[in-house]
Amino acid sequence: MPALYIAGKTAMNHLRALTAKFKPQNVTRLTQYNAAMRAVSQSRLYSTPGALEPFLNGSNSNYLEEMYDAWLANPKSVHKSWDTFFQNSSVSAPSGPMLNNPAPSGSLPAVAHSQSRTQTSARADKIVADHLAVQSLIRAYQIRGHHVAQLDPLGILHADLDSTIPFDLITSMDKLGYYGLHESDLDKVFRLPVTTFIGGNEPAISLREILKRLENTYCRHIGLEFMFINDGDQCQWIRERFETPEILKFTNKEKRRLLARLIRSTRFEEFLARKWSSEKRFGVEGCEVLIPALKTIIDVSISKGVDDVIMGMPHRGRLNVLANVIRKDLEQIFCQFDPKLEASEEGSGDVKYHLGVYHERINRTTNKQITMSLMANPSHLEAVNPVVQGKTKAVQFYRGDITGQKVMSILLHGDAAFAGQGIVYETFHLSDLPSYTTYGTIHVVVNNQIGFTTDPRMARSSPYPTDVARVVNAPIFHVNSDDPEAVIYVCKVAAEWRNTFNKDVVIDLVCYRKRGHNEMDEPMFTQPLMYKQIQQQVPVLKKYADKLISEGVLTLQEYEEEVAGYDKICEEAYTRSKDEKILEIKEWLDSPWPGFFAPSGDPKSMTCAPTGLSVEILQHIGNVASSVPIEDFTIHRGLSRILKGRAAMIKDQMVDWALAEYMAFGSLLKDGIHVRLSGQDVERGTFSHRHHVLHNQDIDKKTCVPMNHLWPDQALYTVCNSSLSEFGVLGFELGFAMANPNALVCWEAQFGDFNNTAQCILDQFISSGQTKWVRNNGIVLLLPHGMEGMGPEHSSARPERFLQMCNEDSDIYPEYTEEFEVTQLFDCNWIIVNCSTPANYFHVLRRQILLPFRKPLIIFTPKSLLRHPEAKSHFDEMKTDTAFQRIIPDEGLAAQNPNDVKRLIFCAGKVYYELAKERVNRKLEKEVAIIRLEQISPFPFDLLKVELNKYPDAELIWCQEEHKNIGYYDYVRPRFRVIVQFKRPVWYVGRDPSPAPATGNKNTYLTELQDLLDMSFNLKAFKA
C-alpha cells in the first residue's frame, strides 16, 4: 500500500479519537483544520505526506477533537464529506484497520511511532465502543422494554408473566458496566443513530437523558412489541410515533371529550347495576376505558375516509358498546331486561349480551354519516372473528373498495380466549391472503388478566395472550388501561397504522375485572389477593377527573353536571322502555337486506322461478367451459384432453358433474349474480374434475378463469383456494354470504368429513342463526361424501349430524297445499340434499338463488360419480321446462307394473348406481323398484306418499351404504312410518352400527358392500 495512501487513511482514522464534548478553542485554527481535512478527503495532500504532520502529531491532534465537537453542535460546520463520515462512525463505525494495524515501518515514522498516536488510538477505541454501547442500549429497550413496562393497573401482576428484568435493560446504575459504560459517562453527549427518535430535533444528547427518554418511552404505561416485524420502514414508522419526546400532549378539548366518554362508559354500567342488580350483564367495569378507546379508533378511521365499520366481540362489555359506541337506542337495550316482555313471533331470540345490531348514524366528531354493525355472537367467544372478516370482505367487494379505505373491521377479544382458541390463529392467517384480506383489522384485547376463574399462568404458555399475532407481523401495543391518555394515543396510532399499511394491529388493554365472571359470581373463591386489591382500587373515572380538575381543565361543578346529564338520559330511556310491549328481535338485525323480502313475507304467496335454461345458453356455457378463451395461453396436455372431452359431451348435449356446476354458475353470472367458491383446492377441484382456473405452463402465475369470459356484462366469478382451515374459512364465507342476498356463496370441504372441525360454525351460526338472530343466509356447503373404500376420514360427511339439527317434526304429516314445496323450504332452518344426477345438482344450485328467501343449503357431493359413465345428464333434463326433483322415481319395468313389485328400495346418493347395477345383474328389474331421495330435508312427504301408494304390496326397504347409526336412517324411518300410518314396516339394509364411519381395509369394504347388495335383493330376507 503506498505510503501517501496510508497517510491519508491514518488522518481519517484519527477522527475516531475525537471526544464527545464540544469545546471550541480557536475558530481560526478550526477553520484551517477544516480546510486541511477537506484537502485530505479530496486526496490533494496524499502526494505530500509531510503536509499531514501538523495535524497528526500529538501537539495538534486536538484539532480533530475540535472539528468533531463542532460537528456535534452543527453538522454543517464541517465539509459534507466529513459530515457523512461522522454520521457513519457514530452509528456503526468499527475500528478501522489503521487503528489496530499501524502503518508499515518507514511510512510516516513521525506519526506511526509517536506516543500521542497511541493515546489517540486508545481514545478512538473508547469513542467507538461507547457509541456502539449506546446503540445496543437503545436497541435493547426497543426490543425488550415492554417486559418492564408498568402495565397492570393493580400493580400486582406482570403482564408477561415474568417478574425478572431482562439482563440488557439498565434499571440501575450498576448495570451500566454490562455495556462498558460508567457513571462518569452519564453526562457525555452521544450522537444518536438514525434508528431512534428519542432525540427529537436534537442530534445528540447526554447518556443520562438517553436513559430517561428510553424509560419514558418503553417502560411506563405503554409496552411496545414491534421489533420482530421484518419491514424496516414499518419499524421506523412505529419508533417515530412513540419515541418522539412528549407525544402524550392533549388539548383541553380532547381531554374533556375523553372524560365525557369515560363518564358515559362508567355511569352506564352503574345504572344497570342499580336497576338490575341480580341480572347477568357481563359489564366492562375495570376496563371502562374501552369505550373511549373504540370511539377514538372509529373517529380517526373515519377522518381517514372509512364510513362503514363492522365489529365483532364477546359478551363482556357488549351492552356498553351497543349503547355508547354503536349508539343503539337505550330503551331498546333496557327493555331486554324486562322479564314480562313477550317473545317475538319469529325465532327464539337470544340473550341480550349475544345480540348484534346494524345502525346508521352521524359521527359527531367528524360530522360524517357512518354505518356501524356489531355481529351477533354466541358464547363461543372468538367464533365470530372469521364471520366479521367475511362480511367485511363482502362489503368491500360490493362497494369496489379494493384497499379497505372505506370499510374496515374491528375485533374485540378477551385475553384468555385470544390465547386459547385456535380460531384466532386461523383468522389471522387469512389476513393477508388475496381473496380473504380485509386490508387490516384492529384487534382490541380486553385483558382482564383472568379467564373465568383461571389464572393466566395456568391458561397460556406464551408470555402475553397476544403472542399469536406475531405470526403475521402485527405490531402489539400493550397499555395500562388506568392511563386513559396513553390508551387514546395508542388507539390513534393503531388506526393510523391500519390506514397506512393495511395490516392488522393489536391493542392489549391491560385492565382488571371488577366483578366475577358474571355479576352473580364470587371471584374471591379463586382470586382472593387480586380482588382484595380491586376492592381498594380507585376507579379510572375518578382518577382522571381528579387529574383534569387539578390541571384546571374543568371544574368540579362541570364534572358533576356532565355526570348528572348522562344519568338523566339513562333515566328517561328507562321510562320509555316500559312502553315496549313486544320484544322485537328484528330491532337487532346485524345484516339487514332492505328491499329483498316480499312486503307480506307470506309463504303462500311465494313461488320459485323456473330453474331450467334454454339449450342455447347451455350450449354457450359449455363451449366456453371446453376452451381457453384467451390467446397465447399454454395449458397442460392432460387438461387439453379434459377440454376435448367436455367439447365432445357438449356436442352430444350431455353434461357430467363438473359441467353441470359450470352451467349453474355461468347462468347465474349472466343474471348479475356474483358467484364465490372457496375452500381447499377448489380451483382445480380435490378430485381434479373442476379446473376453473387454468395455469399457463410457460409463464409463472399467469392464469385464466374462463368463467369470467362468458358474457360481456356478467357478474364476477370468484374462485379461490383457501388456507388449510375449515373453522376459519367456513366462518369467513358465512360472513361473506350475509352481506348480499343476491350472491351464491359456496364453501367446499376437501372431503366432507372435514366439516367436523368447523362444527362450531355449523351449530352456532348456520343451523340456528335464523332462530336466534333472524339472520337469513344462503350459504352453500359442498361436502364430498360416499363410501369408496378410502378409510374412515375420507368417506362420510356425517349426514346424521346435519339431519339431527333440522327443525322439522318427524311425527307430524304436514298440511299439503299447492305451494307445499316452497312452504316447506320457507319453514325449515336449512336444506339438505344428496343429488344423484348432474342435472339435479344444476337445478338445486340455481333454485338457491331463485327462491324468494334464503336458507343454508347442504349438498353431499359425490366422488366416484364425478366420472361415473352413468352419472351424466342430457340437456333435456336442464332445459327451460325442467326443475329440481326432490325425489327421482323408478321409471323402468317395475314402474310399468307396480302391482307386481315385491320390494321397493329407497336410497340416497351414490349407492343408487350400485343397486341399479346389481338389480340388472340379478335380472330383478320387474320385482324391485328403486326410488332416489334427492332432497332429504325438508322431507318430501307429499311425493313419497304418492310412490308408496303406487306400490301397495311391496316391502319397504331403506338402503344406505353408511353404517346404521350413521347416515340417514334414523331421520327417514319415523317419517316413512308417519306416511304409511305405521301400517307397513320399513326395513333397514346397510352396514352394522360402528363408531367409525368406514373401514380402512379394502377387502373389508368390498365384503361389506357385497353383503349390502345381497341383503337388498334377497327377496326372502325380511319374510317373518
TrEMBL record:
| Annotated catalysed reactions | N(6)-[(R)-lipoyl]-L-lysyl-[protein] + 2-oxoglutarate + H(+) = N(6)-[(R)-S(8)-succinyldihydrolipoyl]-L-lysyl-[protein] + CO2
Protein's UniProt keywords contain Transit peptide: yes
Main localization of the protein described in the UniProt heading: mitochondrion
Task: Give the residues annotated as coiled coil.
Answer: none
One of the record's GO cellular component terms:
mitochondrion
Keywords in alphabetical order: Calcium, Glycolysis, Isopeptide bond, Magnesium, Metal-binding, Mitochondrion, Nucleus, Oxidoreductase, Thiamine pyrophosphate, Transit peptide, Ubl conjugation
**Transketolase-like pyrimidine-binding domain: which residues?**
655-868
Cofactor(s) essential for the protein: Mg(2+); thiamine diphosphate
> What Gene3D superfamilies does the annotation carry?
3.40.50.12470, 3.40.50.970, Multifunctional 2-oxoglutarate metabolism enzyme, C-terminal domain, TPP helical domain
| EC class (word) | oxidoreductase
Region called Disordered, residue ranges: 93-116
> Could you tell me where this protein is found in the cell?
Mitochondrion; Nucleus
Sorted alphabetically, which PANTHER family does this protein's record hold? 2-OXOGLUTARATE DEHYDROGENASE, 2-OXOGLUTARATE DEHYDROGENASE-LIKE, MITOCHONDRIAL
In the record, the note on similarity to other proteins reads: Belongs to the alpha-ketoglutarate dehydrogenase family.
What NCBIfam families does the record tag this protein with?
Answer: 2oxo_dh_E1 (TIGR00239), PRK09404.1 (NF006914), PRK12270.1 (NF008907)
**What name goes with this protein?**
2-oxoglutarate dehydrogenase complex component E1
Cite the source lineage.
Eukaryota, Metazoa, Chordata, Craniata, Vertebrata
